[in-house]
Write a structure and sequence with these properties.
The protein has 8 helices and 8 strands, in the order αβββαααβββαααβαβ. The chain has about 325 residues and is α+β, with helices and mostly antiparallel strands.
Length: about 325
């Protein structure tokens, strides 16, 4: 959210028109997630044209999605018995405890695997939850506590059933008091829109993602990812709102790649972009973010085609 878009304009403004779009998981129905971002759609000026207002079209899609009942955090606690046993035994091994057998299955309470500090933080957050939301955290399936915070800074979410913004630090122990365990990495990937479970893959009509946070994954990089639903929605909107410029056959051979600008002295974070050159005349849409398995029918959402002014002065 704090990235200076003027930097993109300085580097790409000679060839691209820039259209920023502010997005959040709530726009895609994930009202429990917190990951606000600014995506920038870069349209190659010599090959493409904008025929719909990109921001307005995205807002129209968000309103249409908002008519569907939103998903809740408890909808993503999908870990199987085998996954839970694998996770528990992995932590037990770190604690130098003997593993539990398949016949025993996973424990019903993982609080014995928490550190003393984490237990104190959980107790403090439980008391705060009771005062703020007037309900027992142990009986609320939408309650989640980030146990990575210090005891002095531990605060519960102001809104009921809200997942904290995932980072590489707090995704290690997001405690579910009602289930007496933490969210697994695969479940966290599901909250970020990755179809890592067959139920999600069938709903999105895509193949199941077996590469992002597979069972037993110990990587914390899920805390750095973009939300898949947002990235896919922005990509779909960008493709629906742009069109190829109508060029005559003789003009196709006359389109030349622009010459790179003369080097200018740069300082600070701009230095790492100083070597970037974009000499291309192919129809390309660039945007900040990844792609997601989101299929949208935008024909009924697009307004009357017209040309909108670009962000560049």
């Amino acid at each position: 959210m704090g990235f200076d878009i003027a930097l993109l304009r300085d580097m790409l403004g000679r060839w691209y028109d820039l259209y920023p779009v502010r997005v959040a998981p709530t726009h895609a129905g994930y009202r429990f997630a917190r990951r606000p971002r600014v995506y920038v759609v870069c349209v190659l000026r010599t090959a493409l044209r904008v025929v719909h207002d990109i921001a307005a079209l995205y807002a129209s899609v968000s309103r249409r999605v908002g008519r569907v009942p939103p998903v809740a955090l408890s909808d993503f606690t999908l870990a199987s018995r085998e996954e839970l046993l694998l996770e528990e035994n992995s932590v037990r091994r770190d604690r130098r405890l003997p593993p539990r057998s398949a016949a025993q299955g996973p424990s019903r309470d993982w609080s014995y695997l928490l550190s003393e500090r984490q237990r104190r933080v959980a107790g403090s957050l439980k008391a705060q939850w009771q005062r703020k939301h007037h309900r027992d955290a142990g009986k609320d399936p939408e309650c989640v506590f980030p146990l990575n915070a210090s005891l002095e800074r531990a605060r519960v979410a102001a809104t009921h059933g809200v997942l904290p913004t995932l980072t590489t630090k707090n995704c290690r122990r997001l405690w579910l008091p009602a289930r007496r365990r933490w969210l697994l990495h695969r479940e966290l990937a599901a909250t970020m829109g990755f179809p890592v479970y067959s139920e999600m893959a069938r709903a999105a009509k895509v193949e199941e993602d077996v590469f992002t946070s597979p069972p037993g994954c110990r990587s914390w990089m899920i805390g750095n990812c973009m939300h898949v639903a947002n990235a896919g929605c922005v990509l779909a909107v960008a493709m629906a709102a742009t069109g190829v410029r109508c060029l005559k056959p003789k003009d196709l051979t006359s389109v030349k790649s622009p010459e790179p600008p003369p080097p200018t002295p740069l300082s600070g974070p701009q230095k790492e972009y100083a070597s970037l050159r974009f000499p291309t005349s192919r129809p390309v849409i660039c945007f900040s973010g990844g792609t997601g398995p989101l299929k949208l029918n935008l024909r009924r959402l697009t307004p009357t085609p017209q040309i909108y002014p670009r962000l560049n002065p």
